[in-house]
Design a protein that fits this description.
single chain, Arc Repressor Mutant, subunit A, 57% helix, 152 residues, 2 strands, two-stranded antiparallel ribbon
Length: 152
């Protein structure tokens, strides 16, 4: 197994984590700016899109699907509910479960989100070839999968 870092030569500016953090911050800043047109923050669009696509329908499910903790997700969903974009509906089968449902306004705004995301993502991917784009996605998937394995 190749070792890409050593204690003696490690520098933060060459760290994959540091570089990914910088890329994430730049992406989030641009998404945040783009989502202002929809009166959403760079983080609020995620749960709306996840709910619309059927990826989650509870606070815990949305937290899992968006790599967030349930406390932060609850606060985010509270803000989206206050904006009239979603509502909480108690399950008829199990009263302990509270499902999330997009309102009509939420359904309308979700239709607009992809165009804004596409604009930002394509900006960040300028100059990439199709092959580089596919390689980049595959590398990120593998990096994530490796990180989910138990440390050796």
């Amino acid at each position: 197994m190749d070792k890409f870092y050593s204690e003696e030569t490690y520098t933060p500016s060459d760290s994959v984590g540091y570089l990914m953090r910088g890329a994430w911050q730049a992406l989030l800043k641009n998404i945040d700016s783009e989502m202002q047109a929809l009166e959403l923050t760079g983080m609020q669009w995620g749960p709306l899109l996840l709910i619309a696509k059927g990826a989650c329908n509870t606070v815990a499910g949305c937290a899992r699907a968006s790599y967030s903790d349930s406390g932060a997700m609850t606060r985010m969903l509270d803000r989206l509910e206050a904006k009239g974009l979603l509502c909480r509906v108690r399950s008829l089968e199990d009263r302990r479960i509270v499902n999330l449902k997009l309102t009509q306004a939420g359904q309308e705004i979700v239709k607009l989100i992809p165009a804004h995301l596409v604009r930002v993502l394509n900006q960040h991917l300028q100059g990439f070839s199709v092959e580089e784009f596919e390689l980049f996605k595959n590398m990120l998937r593998r990096f994530t999968e490796n990180g989910q394995q138990e440390m050796k």
